[in-house]
Design goal:
Blueprint (H helix, E strand, L loop, with lengths): L6 E11 L5 E11 L3 E5 L6 H8 L7 E6 L2 E2 L4 H7 E4 L11 H11 L4 H14 L15 H13 L5 E5 L7 H18 L2 E6 L2 H7 L2 E6 L2 E6 L1 H7 L3 E7 L5 H14 L3 E6 L2 E6 L2 H14 L4 E7 L3 H9 L13
Parallel strand pairs: 3-8, 3-9, 6-7, 7-8
Antiparallel strand pairs: 1-2, 1-4, 4-5, 9-10, 11-13, 11-14, 12-13
Helix pairs in contact: 3-4, 9-10
Bound molecules: adenosine-5'-triphosphate and magnesium ion.
């Protein structure tokens, strides 16, 4: 772990309860080294946006502390705001104004003026492949164009730390890939620190040097994607059952599998059974034999290297509930 002064984001034990009694954050801690891309990965309602809102001074925690770019978010919100760019989950662009007008307005909010601002707007339009679209009202943009403009808006004042809340949700695969390339470029060429949230395992795996898996308002595990996957020794064995298994039967089945099929970390979620084995292929016949004996009918079996999905299962105790790993929500 880097020393504290090398941390662009340092949040400790954040707690946030919304009126109505929802505990959105329940001891959320996250540290991001300057100049790196960090991914907060978690399902709907995990607390990702709430974390981003607190770090970007748009919400206050009930307790806990956070600093961004070296400034305490509670004591120096103005300094934090000048140091950061924010791309919210929901677009903040004015739909009636053109892309270029949006950029100019955003620049003015940060005190940019005159030819310098005009140049910056054109530079960003070009960089995000919006030079022509920039002349048209935002309401006519495709989802990908709109999202690219959102990121451009977050960059107008050349922030040190960029927050991207679900930058690719709802984009088609091509637009998503283009966004990934751009985010990788921002991090690589410009040394920007990026904290992004996502519920796409693949996105976190590809873009982030380190990730934190967030579940129910706290980090359940943190590390590089490879290290997290590497902690899961051996292969993952996945079995799709023909019929869903209730909680009691699931417990009996997993116990039987661990005892008689030589697998570990066996878990069943509805129709999906997962387990780990040093040699996955060798374990399959034994797994099938145990399932047959216990009367569980099998639809399909696969053996794979560990994925982030398996990491999530291991630490959250259930499958990562992203409806589709690749497409739009
Ligand atoms: N303004 C609010 N008032 C009340 N409850 C809220 C508010 N904002 C969020 N919540 C609740 O807090 C919890 C965490 O929400 P949050 O938006 O931080 O999750 P998220 O990880 O960003 O989810 P998503 O992937 O759906 O964007 C959820 O249960 C949500 O319903
Ligand atoms: Mg969110």
């Amino acid at each position: 772990m880097p020393g504290n002064d090398a941390l662009a984001v340092d949040a400790r034990e954040l707690i946030k309860t919304y009126s109505g009694g929802v505990t959105a954050l329940d001891g959320m801690s996250v540290q991001v080294a300057a100049g790196t891309v960090f991914g907060l990965l978690g399902p709907n309602g995990a607390g990702k946006s709430t974390t981003v809102k607190i770090l970007t001074t748009l919400a206050r925690p009930d307790s806990g502390a956070a600093s961004v770019a070296g400034h305490d978010v509670a004591k120096k919100p103005g300094k934090v705001r000048r140091a950061i760019g924010v791309v919210s989950q929901k677009s903040g662009a004015d739909p009636v104004a053109t892309g270029r007008e949006n950029l100019i307005l955003q620049g003015r909010l940060y005190g940019l003026r005159g030819p310098e601002l005009q140049r910056r707007a054109d530079e960003l339009l070009e960089r995000f492949d919006l030079t022509d679209a920039g002349k048209r009202p935002v309401k006519g943009y495709s989802g990908g164009m709109q999202r690219r403009l959102d990121v451009a808006l977050g960059l107008v004042h050349r922030p040190e730390v960029l927050f991207l809340d679900e930058p690719t949700t709802g984009l088609d695969p091509e637009a998503r890939q283009a966004m990934w390339d751009e985010i990788a470029r921002l991090a690589g060429d410009e040394g920007l620190t990026i904290l992004l949230t996502t519920h796409y395992l693949e996105e976190a795996d590809k873009l982030a040097e380190r990730i934190a898996i967030v579940d129910r308002g706290r980090v359940v595990v943190e590390g590089t994607p490879d290290a997290l996957k590497g902690e899961l020794r051996g292969d993952a064995v996945h079995v799709e059952l023909r019929d869903p298994v209730g909680e009691v039967d699931a417990r009996l089945l997993t116990t039987a599998l661990t005892e008689f099929a030589g697998v570990r970390d066996a878990a069943i979620d509805g129709r999906r059974l997962s387990a780990r084995a040093d040699d996955g292929a060798a374990a399959v016949p034994q797994v099938l034999a145990v399932l047959e004996r216990e009367g569980a009918k099998v639809a399909a079996v696969t053996v794979a290297r560990p994925s982030l999905d398996d990491v999530y299962l291991r630490y959250a105790g259930r499958r990562f509930p992203d409806v589709d790993a690749g497409g739009a929500r």
